[in-house]
Amino acid sequence: MSLRAKFILLLSTIFFVVVVNTFIIYVLDIQGQAKLEAVIHTHDVLDESEKLYNQITNAETGQRGYLLTQDLNYLEPYYSALEQVKKHFLAVNRLTLSNPEQQNTLALIDELVNKKLAELALTVTLVMQGTPYALEEAKAIVLTDEGKQYMDQIRWHILQFQNTEQAKLEQQNAEYQRNRLFITRFVTLQIPLIVILLVFCAFYINSKLFKPMKILIKNTKQLEKGMPAKMMTINSHDEIGYLFKRFIRMSNIINKRTSKLNFQVSHDHLTGVLNRTELEPALKHATSLCSEDNKLAVIFIDINKFKQLNDNYGHLIGDLVLKETAKRVTSSVRADDDVYRYGGDEFVIVAHNIAKRCYVNAMLNHLIERFDSPFIFEQHTLTVSLSIGVALAPDHSQDPQKLLKLADQAMYQAKQASKNGYHLYQNSTQED
């Protein structure tokens, strides 16, 4: 059996054991979650039933206060409690739809609550009439103790309802705890097995892989010194020997390709400047570091009439214009400033460490001067101009997307103002 096959068998065994144990724990955890949800559900039933009774009590308190004082302020908690009674009863009813026994109890409670609320409403209505007869009638209703009997019955039924739920809660909680305990014991029993498998795997891999790898490391050191690798200690028919032979060749190829790919990923393939994908993370980082004394400028550049130029002279000339534009823009900024191709004929400069806004004016004037000279491509001489918009952080915003948007708006204002110029975004709160 080859080394590869042995490793596959060993790792497959460990993987199988881990997967089986994970699946068992997953199933047990799903069951535990269901039990926990049942516990939470029962807690909610108890909580809503308690709130229901408290709101009935609050409604009665508001009614009594109004009867005794005829103060309309007592009606506010009374009416509020009536709304809450409906809300909490519906909540309890919804939570126990699957329990016929509790639904029957709720039906009795609902009937009693309606009678109690009707009694409260009648007395409040009589008092609101304000006549001596109506007041005496309201007091007579209260003195019959019928409302107290309703409350006693409501309290008793809710207590019975809660006792049933409490018994269910204790049972559910016990089942949940048993499930958690079983999972804990199961995991505890599996740990020694996993440890034994991992220790065996470690010793096996060390003897079959890492010891030969030490020889490979010595050979790589030889290569680092420019000396040929010593293959005598490696069985050329073994996978490790084959890996060593291929490693040297592959590492050289990968290093070259990685450098090339890294550049291609972060830079625009046509102009060679940074591409749009690099702009967002770089701008986010830069805005987090800027301050009033160390501003950040986002400069949005658009080539005027580029589409017309493309249509008149063709895409080949258009590409040359983009390349030359990128070259001139890059040569006009400082070493620590970054130039990005935003898309099409649009470029973005992120200028760091700006002490005053007037420094941006000098930079942009220099940039525009670079485009005073025409672009010459073979028999074509082209005049290219720019529209430039600028937004500053933290002056205008420290949000990267908003800065780009403001710079873009400023660029369009510059485009409307002149064929070759710039516009610095301004707002009323900023000073030079």
Structure in words:
By secondary structure, this protein is α+β, with helices and mostly antiparallel strands. The protein contains eleven helices and seven strands. It has helices at 3-69, 75-95, 100-129, 132-143, 146-224, 239-266, 276-289, 306-313, 315-332, 357-370, 400-417; strands at residues 295-303, 338-343, 346-354, 375-377, 380-382, 386-393, 421-424. The protein has a five-stranded mixed β-sheet with strand order 2-3-1-6-7, with helices on both faces. A two-stranded antiparallel ribbon has the order 4-5. A hairpin with a 2-residue loop joins strand 2 (338-343) and strand 3. The longest helix is centred in the middle third of the chain and has 79 residues, at 146-224. Residues 428-432 have low confidence and may be disordered.
Beta-strand content: 5-15%
- Describe the global form: flat
Run of helices and strands: HHHHHHHEHHEEHEEEHE
Number of helices: 11
Helicity, as a percent range: over 70%
Estimate the mean pLDDT confidence. Answer: 85
Question: Which residue ranges are poorly predicted, with pLDDT under 50 across at least 5 consecutive positions?
Answer: 428-432
**What's the end-to-end separation, in Å?**
79 Å
Which structural class best describes the helix and strand composition? alpha+beta
Q: How big is the Rg?
A: 40 Å
Side by side, the strands of the main sheet go: 2-3-1-6-7
Report the sheet with the most strands, covering strand number, pairing sense and barrel closure: 5 strands, mixed
Total strands: the figure is 7
